[in-house]
Amino acid sequence: MNELIEKAKDFGNKLYYSVFRHRFDNTGLTKSKIMFSNVLLHIQPVKIHKRSIKFKTSMGLGLITFYLFLILCVTGVILMFHYVPSTAIGPDGLPDAYSRMLNLRSNVFWGGFLRNMHRWAAHGMVAFVALHMLRVYLAGAHRGGREFNWVVGCILGLLTVFLSYTGYLLPWDQLAFWGVKVGTEIAKLAPGGALIRGVLLGDTDVGSEALIRFYVLHVAVLPAVMGFLIAVHFFRIRKDGGLARPADTSNEKQIPDEEFGEVKNNSVFKTARSYKLVEIVKGNEPKVNEETDQMMFAWPKLIIREIIVLAAVMFFMSLISVLFDAPLEGPADPNHPTNPAKAPWYFLGLQELTSYDGFIGGIVLPGLMAGGVMFLPYIEIFLESFNKTFRKNIPGVWFARERILENSLFISLYLVMAALIIIGVYFRGANWAIEYPWVQTISGGGH
Ligand code: HEM
Fold first, then answer.
1. Fold of 55-244+305-439
2. End-to-end CA gap in the chain
3. pLDDT per residue over 190-201, tens digit each?
């Protein structure tokens, strides 16, 4: 009997180690192994600077953006089981795509909730990517070797908006049809814009070809490209030395010794030289340029924080999705424009600008803004090279005094865009005339 128990224990151990390859004790070695032997965790470093887990460093904004992207992928795949990107009129006299939306709301178990979650996460991702970018800039985290990752981030930001915009058409209701029509009309004003518009719509106007193209971009091309770029973005954060921090933090409080766990060599890789490196604990680091007394294990503190943020995001998204239904207006009717026809809210700043001057407001200013922001770190470096007394490269310092001009300009840009969006959403009525929100009677989109 005892032999049987021993054998069962032995088998249980083998089974356990075939999956985990480590225990969950408090040694530095185990904390390292947990991080690099798990496919989901190993993209993160074994050790991080203690500043990285502080709320004020990143406010978790990039992480929240990433979680919203994951929510979009999961809910999007489930929605795909039901949705059909067709404008053909079905037996109920409605376009297939639209009637699937109605069905989702009324006949599919939790269908409405799923659609709400997908819609609100899409809007949320656009908002959070903008907030993440603002925090990166105001903390000077776009400099100090992170310039390229800033550019990767900007491309991700543009793709986020495009992802949301391509999804906007899919319900094929009045909101979708006229929202997308307005957006693509703006594109027509740009040099070569008519060509891009033609390629995007596959026709001279928004119709069945546009729906299928937007669908393919939305469900396959953009998520795949973004998934790849997010991996590049995360990889670069590690290679750029983790989250931005002031050049010297050695005068800050050190990590107490007990944080490092018990040091003992119980490696299963005792003979393998390369693995010996990761057994290194405090004061014996293989890396250079890291203040060892400020470095801590990512397990468990960082991972716990990440799980808490995920739980909070899931909770709030679920709450919003239970409380508020995603809009769905009447089926798309190309002969009856809504008045006003508004683009989605994130394009309403542009739409507002185009109402003053189509070319300058719709193309020149946004082009300058997008290009200027994308290459901002390089523009700064170039300008600094003329005057060596400027010291603008101060990564990881919020609202650095030396960067007061840059930060003020960047905040102003956000405030102007926010004001234009608020005017577009709440103060524009029929024929784009100024109207107070409380007297507006017609819903023309903008959400
Ligand atoms: C899909 C969009 C994006 C995702 C999922 C994403 C995700 C992240 C995450 C998780 C971090 C780690 C810090 C944090 O949680 O805030 C980060 C850092 C960073 N992101 Fe993004 N990001 C996105 C877009 C952007 C954009 C639009 C920019 C700027 C234009 C940007 C620039 C950066 C930079 C420079 C860092 C390093 C910051 C530092 O060292 O403190 N990212 N990003």
1. Cytochrome Bc1 Complex; Chain C (1.20.810)
2. 69
3. 788 889 999 999
